[in-house]
Amino acid sequence: MAEANINVAGAPSDDPVNQVYRGPVNKAELDVLLQKAKAKNAERRAKAGKYESPALNINSLMDIFTNILVYLILTYANDPITLNREVNMPKSNALIDPKQAVQMTITPNHILVNNISVVQLSQYEYSRDAIDAEGTLATLKDALSKAREKQQRFAAGGGSNFEGMINVIANTDMPAKLLLRVLDTAGQAEFGQYKLAVVKNK
To answer: Is the four-CA dihedral 65, 147, 188, 159 of positive or negative sign?
Structure first.
């Protein structure tokens, strides 16, 4: 029988398992004491290794699902251009198919962005109040800016890049002065590219 000084790796120095036990200690008792000390140390390590899983962010999931939905709608839309009964588009032999883009329709009485009227006209004439200090059609620029921001958010979520493209649908008799004003306004809203829609000749 002899004194036993037991030290278990990883246990604090003030832990009871690392105290000096004085008195008669036989081999069997020493083995039992060591096993208890090791078990306690293993339990402490297991508790220290536990962590809580991060909470699920519902808002992030909703953003992802919204982006996926918009992407599917834009990708599988039947036709990138919606025709308006008030518009008699010019005819052409062009063979280029239209691409999906913001649609701007000009009729004798309205300017529409994605089929929503944003400027009132009277036989292609707009009121003086429709022009802002920069010489652009204020409500048209505002509507195009919102369309741009929506496309940019979609691009940030992994969708197609914003290209600043608009499809312009207009009558054959639309005054060039109005077209230039509309395109200038679109440029101020960062839509620097445009395509004029035409009807293919048979």
So the answer is: positive
Closest CA relative to residue 69, chosen from 7, 157, 133? 157
Q: Rounded distance, CA 69 to CA 66, Å?
A: 5
54 in a domain, yes or no?
no
pTM of the model: 0.56
How far is it, in rounded angstroms, from Cα 169 to Cα 160? Answer: 23
- Cβ-contact 132, 105 below 8 angstroms: no
Q: What is the pLDDT of residues 88-115, one digit of tens each?
A: 666 777 666 667 788 999 999 999 999 8
Residue 21 lies in a domain: yes
Same domain, residue pair 42 and 68: no
* Inter-axis angle of helices 138-156 and 176-188, nearest 10: 40
pLDDT digits (tens, 9 = 90+) for 51-88: 555 555 676 777 777 777 776 665 555 455 566 666 66
In which domain, by residue range, is 81 found? 59-200
User: Where is 122: in which H helix or E strand?
Assistant: none
Q: What does DSSP say about strands 110-113 and 102-106: parallel, antiparallel, or unpaired?
A: antiparallel
Task: Please tell me which of 14-18, 134-138, 169-173 the model is most confident about, judged by mean pLDDT.
Answer: 134-138
Q: Are residues 41 and 94 in the same domain?
A: no
Give residue 135's Cα distance to chain centre.
32
Domain count within the chain:
2
